[in-house]
Structure formats: C-alpha cells, structure tokens
Amino acid sequence: QVQLVESGGGLVQTGASLRLSCAASGRTFSSDTMAWFRQAPGKEHGLVAVVHLSSGWTYYAESVKGRFTISRDSVKGTLYLQMNSLRPEDTAVYYCAVQPSGSPSYDYWGQGTQVTVSS
To answer: What is the largest CA-CA distance in the chain?
Structure first.
C-alpha cells in the first residue's frame, strides 16, 4: 500500500525558509512523477512543483520559480520541497502526490502539511 507522509510545515515570517519532506513507501517510484501541490483557504489546489524521477525533469509554477526547489533522495525515498523567500501568499496546506508511470493522473496523495507565512 502506497503511503505518503508530509512533514516540515509551520509558522514562519516573510522571507524565511522551510523544507518540506514527503516520506514515500509502498511501491517502486523510480519511473514515476512526484509533485507538490498546495491549497490555500477558499481556493482550489494548485500545482507547485513536479519532478520526473527517471529523467530528472522538473517544472515549477511561475509564482514559486527561483524560490522553491523540488528534489528527491532516492536512498531515503523522500521527496523534498525547499522553500526560500517565503511570502504570505505561500500560505497553504501543501500536499505531495505521485503520478505512477503510465497513469494520466496523480493517484496517490499525502495528508498535507500546513505552511503559514506571516507578514
């Protein structure tokens, strides 16, 4: 059974940094795509960053480009999101998700971790 467990969220001030972690287990992820999404209060969840694990290809939403970095430690099986220069508009629940190789959708989701950035 696939499990994704996020951690690392918290309350920080504008300009601070946080690193989110997503411990992934239950399948071989090496050919999958993994991503971070976020959902702010009253808004739909949106894509933040993506990494295709076999090619290393990454994608970032325009709003986080240059500030956030997605990476994965294949030995630990953990996905990371390094977030620098945080802004109040980054406040949201952050979720990690897995799109299995060959699947058209993100089939596995974590429970989310809250990030709050105060001004």
So the answer is: 42
Can you give the chain as a three-state secondary structure string?
CCEEEEECCEEEECCCCEEEEEEEECCCCCCCEEEEEEECCCCCCEEEEEEECCCCCEEECCCCCCCEEEEEECCCCEEEEEECCCCHHHCEEEEEEEECCCCCCCCEECCCEEEEEEC
**Mean pLDDT in the chain?**
96
pLDDT at 74 over 90: no
Q: Binning pLDDT at 50, 70 and 90, where does residue 14 land?
A: very high
Other C-beta atoms closer than 10 Å to the C-beta of 36 total 26
